[in-house]
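Running low. Any example?
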Amino acid sequence: MRGVVRQSNGIYIVDSGYSSQSKVAAVYFVVDHGRVAIVDTGSNTSVPRILSTLAYLNIVPEAVEWVISTHLHLDHGGGVGSLMCALPHARVAIHSSAANQLAYPDQTWENTIKLFGWEQSFRPYGYLTPVDEQRIVPARDGLVLPLGDRVLRLLHTPGHTHHHIVVWDESANAFFAGDAFGISYREFDVSKRSFVFPSSPFAQFDPIAMIESIARMAAHNPEAIYLSHYGKVTGIERLANDLFRLIHAQVAVAQAARGSGLARHTEILSGLEELVREECARQQWAINEEISLNLLRPDLCLNVQGLEIWLDSLHEKRAIKEAAMKEEMSLMAVAAA
C-alpha cells in the first residue's frame, strides 16, 4: 500500500497525508502478537488512511488497544476523537495535563480559529470530536502500557509543548518522539545520514526544557528515533548534538532581534534562514539552498512565532521581577524612615 513502510520489530510508518507533499507527517503502528498501538493520528483527514492501513494489514479495528497522542497540535492529535469512534476497544494515552482537552476540545478549536481563521482551520483539520473521558488514560511520567509481549513506556518531554510525551519501545530500542527530537525530511538525507532541525512553534516553546528532553532521550542510547516529521533517523548522538547547537543558535538569533511586531518577526526569520544556509554547507546536502529553504520555510515561520512568544514571556517575567524589586525597595525605605 502506498504511504506504508514496514520496519523491523512490528513497526509501520504511515504517511498521514497531512500535506499535499508526501512524507511530511507520520502516524506509527506498533504491532505485537496481533495487538496494536497507534502513535499519533494526524488530523481528521488522516483517519480514512489509518483505517485503510489497518485493512491492508488484515488488522481488525478491535485489535487496536492504544492510541497514544504525543501532543495535541492538530497535525498530530486533531484526528484522535474521530479515530476513536472507529476503534471500539482502544483507549487514549496522553499527558495528564492535556487529557481534559481531549474530552472537551471546544477551547482548542476556538484557539485554532483565532490563530488561523475559520477556513484555514477547518480545511486541514475539520471539527474536533470529543473523546469519552472513560476511554482516556492520563499519562504520568514513566507510565507503562502493555502491548502483546512488549511494553511501551511514556516519558514526559516538555520543550516543544508543556504536555509533550514520547514513547520508549525497549523491544525496538527506539523512541517515538513526536516533535520532541526535531524535524527531519528525507530530502535532506546524504548517504542515509539524516539531519534534524529544532521545532519551536507557538505557544509553549521552552529551550531549556527542550534541551533536557533531548538529552534524556539520547541517554537511552536508542538505535533509532521515529519522528512525526518524518520517519526513522539513526546516529542519535550526532543528531542530539546538532539539535543542541541549533537550539542555542535559534535562541541567539531571537535575542539579537531588534524592535517589535513585523520588524522583529522579519529579522528573526531572516536569521533562521541564514542558519539553514549554513547547514546546507555544513551537511553537504544534495539539494541547494533555495530548495532547502522552501522545504523548511513553513517550519521556520512557526519557529519564529514560538521564539517571539518565548521572548515576550521573558520580558514579562523580567518586568514582574523588576516591579517586585522596586516595591520591596520602597517598603524597605519606608521601614528605614
About this structure: Residues 273 and 297 are 8 Å apart (CA to CA). The chain is about 45% helix and 20% strand. The first strand starts at residue 4 and ends at 6. Residues 289-336 form the longest helix (48 residues).
